[in-house]
Design a protein that fits this description.
By secondary structure, the chain is mostly helical. Among the domains are: 149 residues, HUPs (Rossmann fold, 3-Layer(aba) Sandwich); 96 residues, Arc Repressor Mutant, subunit A (Orthogonal Bundle), CATH 1.10.10. The radius of gyration is 32 Å and the shape is elongated. Bound molecules: glutamic acid. Glutamic acid binds next to loops.
Length: 468
C-alpha cells in the first residue's frame, strides 16, 4: 500500500518550530517510501482560526521547501461530510445527544475530585431518550466501556489503555460544528492515511480516536507520536525561550537548510553525523528511529549549523536566500561589486545571512561616519600621512587586481618604513568604516578603485580635522 502522511496544523498562530519538525518527519517519511504527503488545515475552530495563520503556515512550508503532493485540504470545506458521519454514528447508536449544562458538568467534576476520582464525563445522557427543553445538545461518542485499546506506536512502543479510563468525547458542539477528534478521524480515513505522525500532546486523544475508527469499520493507520521539544530550562518550548515561529528564523538570518538539518537531528540521529543533505535525510530517516524522549532546543547548535551551510552551499543558493535580507535591510546593491564575489569574500566569517548583509553595506554605499571604537583604536596622529602615501601608491596602479593592490600596500609600508600592522588597520577603517572585513586586497578590490580613493581622501580630511 502506498504510504500516505499528512501534516495537519490548526491555523491559530504561526508555524511553530515543533510543528515544523512534525511536518518534516511526515514529509521525509513520505518521500523516503515514495508515498504521498498532504497538508491539511484543521480550521474548524472558527473563532481561533485566522487567514493570517493559514498564510504563515503556507509560507513556512514553502520556505522550508516541504512540498505537498495535493492541494491543501481545508476542513471547513468538509462540514457536510462530517455531518454525514456524525449522523451515521447516531444511527448506529455509537453517538448520543448530551444535554448537560456547564454548571452540571462542573458540579460533576467537583464531586469526582472530592471522591478522589479522575474528572471525566460520567455518561449520564447515554440513556436519555427525551430532549431537554430549550437546550441545544452536544453530541458525544459512545466509547466502549469494556476491553482495552492497544496503540502500537512507532515511536513510543506499545501503549495499552483500558476503555473504562476513557470518557465519551464531544464530537459535535451545540451549534452542530464537529470537533477535532471527529474531523481528524473522518479525514484520516477518507484521505487514506497510512501513517499518522504528530506531536505526543495528542497521545491522550489516540485511544478514543481508535475507538471511532472501529465504530466506523475503518482500518487503523499506524501511529507515531513525536515527543515535545523543550527549552533549555526543561519546560516545553515556547515564546519565553525566544524565536519559535519558523519565519522568525528567516528574519534572524537562518537558512532553511540549516533549520531542517537542525530539526531532523532534534529527535533523530544517525551515528554521530551532524550534517545531512536533503537527499541524505530522505535516504537515512525512518520514523521508527525517532527518539522517544523529548529533546532540548539548543540555539548555539542551530547557529553552528547555519554557519556551516553559509560557508558551503553553492553561492547561487546563498544569494537566493540573501535577497530577503537585502530588501529587509534596505540595501541597494545596484551600484557595486557582484554579489557573488561579496558572498564568497565574506561568508567564512558571517554568523547569519542578516549579519552577512549588514557587514557588506560598505561595498555598495558610502558612509561619513566610522565605527567609534575602530576609529579610536586605529586613527592616530600619523594617519593622514599614511593615508596620503597609500592613496598615492594605489592611484598610480595601472590595474586594480589583488596582486597589484597588495604590492601597493607593501610598497607604502616600505616607503614609510612601517610594519603592515601600522598601515593595514587604519586603511581598513578608512575604506570600510569598521575594523572587520576580508583581507585588505580582497576588500579593496571589491570596493573598487574609485570608491577606495574617495574614501582615503575622506579619511585624510577626517583625521586632519581631528589631529590638527
Ligand atoms: N490539528 C492538530 C494540531 O494542530 C493536529 C492533529 C493531528 O495531527 O492529528 O495539533
Amino acid at each position: 500500500m502506498t504510504v500516505k502522511t499528512r501534516f495537519a496544523p490548526s491555523p491559530t498562530g504561526y508555524l511553530h518550530i515543533g510543528g515544523a519538525r512534525t511536518a518534516l518527519y511526515c514529509w521525509l517519511y513520505a518521500r523516503k517510501t515514495g508515498g504521498n504527503f498532504l497538508l491539511r488545515i484543521e480550521d474548524t475552530d472558527r473563532e481561533r482560526s485566522t487567514q493570517a495563520s493559514v498564510d504563515a503556515i503556507l509560507e513556512g512550508m514553502e520556505w522550508l521547501q516541504l512540498d505537498y503532493d495535493e492541494e491543501p485540504v481545508f476542513q471547513t470545506d468538509r462540514f457536510d461530510r462530517y455531518a454525514e458521519v456524525i449522523q451515521q454514528l447516531m444511527d448506529q447508536g455509537d453517538a448520543y445527544y448530551c444535554y448537560c449544562s456547564r454548571e452540571e458538568l462542573d458540579e460533576m467534576r467537583d464531586q469526582q475530585r472530592k471522591n478522589k476520582q479522575k474528572p471525566r464525563y460520567d455518561g449520564r445522557c447515554r440513556h436519555r431518550s427525551e430532549p431537554r427543553e430549550g437546550v441545544d445538545p452536544v453530541i458525544r461518542f459512545r466509547n466502549p466501556t469494556d476491553g482495552e485499546v492497544v496503540i502500537d506506536d512507532l515511536v513510543k512502543g506499545k501503549i495499552v489503555i483500558a476503555n473504562k479510563e476513557l470518557d465519551d468525547l464531544i464530537i459535535a458542539r451545540s451549534d452542530g460544528t464537529p470537533t477535532y477528534n471527529l474531523t481528524v478521524v473522518v479525514d484520516d480515513i477518507d484521505m487514506q492515511m497510512t501513517h499518522v505522525i504528530r506531536g505526543d500532546d495528542h497521545i491522550n486523544n489516540t485511544p478514543r480516536q481508535i475507538n471511532m475508527y472501529k465504530a466506523l469499520g475503518a482500518e487503523l493507520p499506524k501511529f507515531a507520536h513525536v515527543p515535545m521539544i523543550l527549552g533549555d530550562d526543561g519546560k516545553r518550548l515556547s515564546k519565553r525561550h525566544g524565536a519559535v515561529g519558523v519565519m522568525q528564523y528567516r528574519e534572524e538570518g537562518y537558512l532553511p537548510q540549516a533549520v531542517l538539518n537542525y530539526l531532523i537531528r532534534l529527535g533523530w540521529s544517525h551515528g554521530d553525523q551532524e550534517i545531512f543533505s536533503r537527499e541524505e535525510m530522505i535516504a537515512l530517516f525512518d520514523i521508527g528511529d525517532v527518539h522517544s524522549a523529548p529533546s532540548t532546543f539548543n540555539t548555539e547548535k542551530l547557529q553552528w549549523l547555519n554557519q556551516q551551510y553559509i560557508k558551503t552551499l553553492p553561492v547561487e543558493e546563498i544569494i537566493k536566500h540573501l535577497q530577503w535580507h537585502i530588501e529587509d535591510q534596505n540595501l541597494d546593491i545596484s551600484n557595486g561589486p557582484e554579489l557573488a564575489d561579496v558572498v564568497n569574500a565574506s561568508r567564512e566569517r558571517a554568523k547569519s545571512l542578516a549579519d552577512l548583509v549588514a557587514s557588506c553595506r560598505y561595498y555598495y554605499e558610502d558612509f561619513t561616519e566610522y565605527d567609534l571604537n575602530a576609529a579610536k583604536k586605529n586613527f592616530k596622529t600619523a594617519t593622514p600621512d599614511i593615508m596620503q602615501a597609500l592613496r598615492d601608491q594605489l592611484e598610480s596602479l595601472s590595474e586594480w587586481e589583488l596582486d597589484s593592490i597588495d604590492t601597493a600596500i607593501k610598497a607604502t609600508c616600505k616607503t614609510l618604513d612601517l610594519k603592515l600592522n601600522k598601515v593595514g588597520p587604519p586603511l581598513r577603517v578608512a575604506v570600510t568604516g569598521s575594523a572587520m572585513s576580508p583581507s585588505l586586497d580582497v576588500t579593496l578590490k571589491l570596493v573598487g578603485r574609485e570608491r577606495t580613493l574617495k574614501r582615503l581622501t575622506q579619511a585624510i580630511a577626517f583625521n586632519r580635522a581631528k589631529y590638527a
